Amino acid sequence: KNQVEQSPQSLIILEGKNCTLQCNYTVSPFSNLRWYKQDTGRGPVSLTIMTFSENTKSNGRYTATLDADTKQSSLHITASQLSDSASYICVVSASLIDYKLSFGAGTTVTVRA
Amino acid sequence: EPEVTQTPSHQVTQMGQEVILRCVPISNHLYFYWYRQILGQKVEFLVSFYNNEISEKSEIFDDQFSVERPDGSNFTLKIRSTKLEDSAMYFCASSYSGTVTYEQYFGPGTRLTVT
Q1: A64-90 burial, b if ≥16 CB within 10 A, otherwise e?
Q2: Which of A5, A69, B11, B21 is the Cys-Cys partner for B77 at CB 3.0 to 4.6 Å?
């Protein structure tokens, strides 16, 4: 069964600090991996999409990495801001025809002043 | 910027009643999706829809569920006889294409509460 596991479950960081979130997956075959940001009570918003041939992608202060050999990805948040407080979800697709996404449980990030 | 919209934002219904959740996808998008998220749990895929038919559905999407694109702009999810365990946030999403190049854009969700 396709699995997407994220760690930590939650973390608290001070404004201005950096943090790194982890994602391990067993989805096969692998097509692409996405990181989404989900504010409380809202729909997920895409941060990055990486295919198996990409090993890093940035979107502003967010940088995602992918190791398709070890089936691991990370999301690094640089110089965190209060607005970064949200759930960050790792999502993996097994198909080139992207009908179905497998979601991780998310990491809840709380940024404190 | 175009966005996916959903109505209502919150729906309360009694067990056994039918509910219809509505979504207006981004206008030039061709692929449509429904997901659900039970409180405190991960987002789960329900169904994808293209060219007026279901492309793929999960094991959650049983005979109690149906989807429809009634008028070329709306995309609806119907639950025929709601159960307590159907209480969840339901997200609609749309994309221009079904391939990885094109992002899925999510709506703000409809919170369904079954009592």
Answers
A1: bbbebeebebbbebeebeeebbbbbbb
A2: B21
